[in-house]
Specification:
Layout lengths: L7 H17 L13 H8 L17 H9 L8 H8 L1 H10 L8 E4 H6 L7 E5 L9 E3 L20 E6 L4 E8 L2 E10 L6 H5 L4 E4 L6 H17 L5 E8 L9 E7 L9 H8 L4 H11 L5
Antiparallel strand pairs: 1-4, 2-3, 2-4, 5-6, 5-8, 6-7, 8-9
The structure holds adenosine-5'-diphosphate (ADP) and magnesium ion.
Length: 298
Amino acid sequence: MGGWSAEREVSLRSGKTCADAAEKAGYRVSRVDVDREIAARLRALKPDVALNVLHGRPGEDGTLQGLLEILAIPYSHSGVLASALAIQKDIAKTVLKAAGIPVPGGRLVARADAARAHALPKPYVIKPVAEGSSVGVFIVSEDQTHPPQELTRPDWTFGETLLAEPFIAGKELTCGVMGDKALGVIEVVHMLKFYDYEAKYAPGGSKHLLPAPIAPDVYEEVQRLSVAAHQALGCRGVTRADFRYDDSKPGIEGLFCLEVNTQPGMTETSLVPDMATHAGIAFEELVRWMIEDASLNR
Ligand SMILES: Nc1ncnc2c1ncn2[C@@H]1O[C@H](COP(=O)(O)OP(=O)(O)O)[C@@H](O)[C@H]1O
Ligand SMILES: [Mg+2]
């Protein structure tokens, strides 16, 4: 848990919740806040299994997975390649598209260029290629004359290349996958302007509608696409796919997959635990499943 990404605090919360549940389930648990000494600490600890509850780098990008492979410590969630693929949104979209999963269009743009002129016709979205939790995401609406000037900040830490996508109006849908089974679809309703970091983690910042109030065929399609996306990227364990759904379009036409999260949030109020509970899998059981699912060569 922990680490040094922008999502460190969420990971510490996910980690505490999972460690508590694992202890309750009867496992002997060591809580490890990941830092640059992680290799030496793991070598000293010699755990039977690593339950990876990190978000962002280095737990979500394949590098920690590489270390665990070298140390021969079985670990949860996705392996080296799937993790590295999924965290790189532009490359992940290419793979998903090739597998027949609808993704938004758009293009890569240099940070300075995105700040100087609109990267796409408005409305559009500018986001980091490899961050999570809506960190560094900007929605440029019709009435905005200038591109986001925050992009010019000297303390910008979200990379020099950004992803520009057409803004997809409508609903925010998300679907967890456990093994090769979909866990159900949640519509996230944001109380703030858009689903940003604050809305995701502030109490009352967002609401989960479960099951998502969408037509049954759309609900089924989100579940099918989520499993297909998990498999196309070669994911393992638990993942969560994020979608936008423009419900002004007929049927499943307005459905677009934004990304697959290989290390979804695991606090008690997070999306995947919520879906699992609804599917009849209690939090403790979910954590137990992740631990027992751990392996090498994932
Ligand atoms: N093309 C898009 N159209 C509309 N909203 C978007 C689009 N891309 C991102 N968003 C908004 O930004 C949020 C974060 O984007 P996402 O691609 O899921 O990255 P992450 O969750 O890793 O920060 C989404 O949940 C959604 O609310
Ligand atoms: Mg997302």
